[in-house]
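Reviewer 2 asked us to include a model.

Predict the structure of this chain.
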Amino acid sequence: MNKARIKAGKKVLCILLIIILAGAAAFLLYCLPYYHAKNAPDFSEDERVSIEDKGKYIFYDGPGTDTALIFYPGAKVDEKAYEALMVGIAEEGTDCFLVKMPLHLAFFGKSRADIIMKSYDYDAWLMGGHSLGGSMAAEYTKSHGDAVDGLVFLASFSASDLTRYQNLRCLSVYGSRDLVLNRSKYEQNKANLPAGSLSEVVIDGGNHAGFAYYGPQKGDGEAAISKEEQIKKTVDAVAEWGQ
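Predicted model (C-alpha cells):
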C-alpha cells in the first residue's frame, strides 16, 4: 500500500470520526435539556395514596386492588410532573406506576413495563402515556397485547397495528386547544385500533401540556382552563371509562 492510499484512508477515517462526534453532540444537545416539574402540588402527606419511589418507576398505591395503570411520560418531560395525575387516578381506584425513562424519552424504555408486570399481581393491566409516551405504550402492547386489558392515550395515538387484539379497550383524551398533537395522524392512526374499541374525550379549553406540571410547551396552544381542571377532567374520564 503506497503512502498516498494510506493518507487518503486516514483522511476518510478522520471525516467519519468527525461525523460520528458531531452526530453524538447533536443527539446530546437534543436529549439533555428537558421540561422539569414546575409548581407541582406536594402529595407527600396524601392519606389515600401511598407513594413509593422504586428506582425505575414510582408506585402510587391507592385504595383499589384490582386494576393498575402503567404510565409512560411525554418526551423530554420530568416524570414527577405527572404526579397530580397519578395520585388522582390512584385515588379513584386504579393503582399507578409512573415509569422513569432513559434521557426522558420513552423510546429508550418502552419495555420497562415488563419488570412491573412481573413484580405485581393485578386482575387487569392498563398501559398508557402522554404524547410520545402513549405511542410507546401502544408499541409495547403490540407485542404484549394478551397481557394488556386497556390503553389510555393522552394527546397521543398508536402508530402500531393493534387490530388483532379484539378485547383491547382504548381511551383517548386530548385538549381542544392542543396544537402539538398532529390531528391528521391522530385520525389516520385510529385504524390501528380494534374496531369499536375507542372512547374519545375532548377537554374543552385544554392543551397539550395541561396533563402535567411542567410549564408551557413549545408550539402548544394557550389553555383556557387551569392545569388543575384539565387533570381533574382527565382523572374523571379515566375513572368513568374504567367502570
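Helices lie at 3-31, 83-91, 113-119, 132-144, 183-188, 227-242. Confidence is low (pLDDT under 50) at residues 18-29. We have added this to the supplementary material.
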